[in-house]
């Protein structure tokens, strides 16, 4: 049995930040447990590799939801990263923070210190933006943010199309004003994906006080009374127990974190008792409040002469040139994230902040790229930014290796569908604008745009997640009966345990969630460091007896 000061469960976006920041103090020992493997795959480094991982089980949990009545009984697809870096190692690398008002709303719910001005320093601390250097952006942080190296010429057509329907060009949707459209900024560095693992963890693997264990599935958190004292994990068919002298930090994501708490006996007893798990602490909000961005894609075929990705002899020839270009110089089309355009806009003119998002893709997207079309084309995602529908994450089994029961309850709130219908019409108007004349070919799923009933059925038949689940370990004051953690991300009513990841968001931010998750972990790391300084009962762990670098992870060392 080994002892550490901090055990971090989950090597995703938040976990990588925590492990790196806490181990900056050489007197502190940190163990990071990750269920997936090391992030040494070329599919991860090469940005274009996302198209191979997103629709498959490569480095991907590839979860499914329960059948969704709001989606005509279909099961939704929920890809999540199963690898160091988590979903930041398999996503489209889009850097978007959300609207300032999203964070001010968190503060208004009783979460002191989480308004936008409180969070901005941590966005900046994390960031090294190659383009923007102003009051809203950081320089010198671990997470590199860059313009696309080789964007498609179709991005300019997309921006022109947005202008034609009243969405102006905006050079920085993460700056003072979110409204508008731009070519996507991406978390890349020198033509490679800059995941949270690459940004934070890989440069620091040689720290003697940092232990990283891959292929390690955490089975439960161990408690003495109401205090977390360690975890039990499984690796290679063997069970191991490690102890935490200070805290257990749960960073397993919006699905994994509530699942682990429930498996450990923390949650509503009615959700725990049927599985024969001993109840440790009644906390009814665990696994509740699931929110996710619902999304609908319009796609059009086009000729291979246009600057898009697709299956053709011309593309094969282009890739035969692009691959050595990337291997030798880290430049060219291999650096594409596919989702090369982004935009935020309003469903109605009287709204104060954008409630809809465009994501423009220079390829045909159908069913999360699980349906392949032997054709070039382009697509656009329409995303509902602040859905009112709320779902749950519960246990399907007491087996930690079994997936959780994911029920987003898409379109369960009656206000969500009317906004999606308005967005559907605006997206269609944008894609049918003059900017795409001569490029736009056959539409994949044509629908009578004058028939709201037909539009609604198109949405229910094809819509699904935009990959941003949050909220299942909600941050809120003790007066909120559904809050799981307080504003310091400590689990209510317990000691020695925090939840730090996207699950703590009380409400969705109006954008992609990876940047916000990294910010949360940066902020939490400072809170933990401050608490350690103040602690009067600190007893030092002999680091010479408690650290090792797991062999399965050494491949993540810098070359």
TrEMBL record:
What is the protein name stated in its UniProt record?
A: Glucose-methanol-choline oxidoreductase
**Species, as recorded:** Photobacterium lutimaris
Residues in Glucose-methanol-choline oxidoreductase N-terminal domain copies: 81-104, 253-267
Q: Which UniProt keywords apply?
A: FAD, Flavoprotein
Q: Which Pfam families match?
A: GMC_oxred_C, GMC_oxred_N
As for family, the record states: Belongs to the GMC oxidoreductase family.
PANTHER family in the record: CHOLINE DEHYDROGENASE, MITOCHONDRIAL, GLUCOSE-METHANOL-CHOLINE GMC OXIDOREDUCTASE
Looking up InterPro entries in the UniProt record yields: FAD/NAD-bd_sf, GMC_OxRdtase, GMC_OxRdtase_N, GMC_OxRtase_C
What Gene3D superfamilies does this protein's entry cite? FAD/NAD(P)-binding domain, Glucose Oxidase, domain 3
Single GO MF descriptor = oxidoreductase activity, acting on CH-OH group of donors
Q: Does this UniProt record's set of keywords contain Lipid biosynthesis?
A: no
Named cofactor requirement(s): FAD
Highest taxon above the source species: Bacteria
